[in-house]
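Hi Y.,

Following your request, here is the sequence exactly as I used it, all 82 residues.
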Amino acid sequence: MIYLLVGIPLLFLGTFTRVYDVTADTCFWVDGLSRSANCFSKGSVVPYLFKWAPQIAGFALILWGIRLSRAARQAKENQPPT
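Below is the corresponding structure, written out as tokens. Let me know if you'd prefer a different format.
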């Protein structure tokens, strides 16, 4: 359950991050959280890391949480009767 609770905000953080190019910079902006854009030099991968890393981590945590909850439910169903 904790994996789901941590994964969902990370997924939303990556979803609401916008990456765009300015003349000499590549900038990213988080809708609703950022006051101004954070810019890095042209060709930098840092803005894309802020966009894609939370999405990948959030998606992986959600899938891991689903897998663990299914395994726990299956283990509970397969207990011998007392």
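The helical segments are 2-15, 46-77.

Thanks again,
Q.
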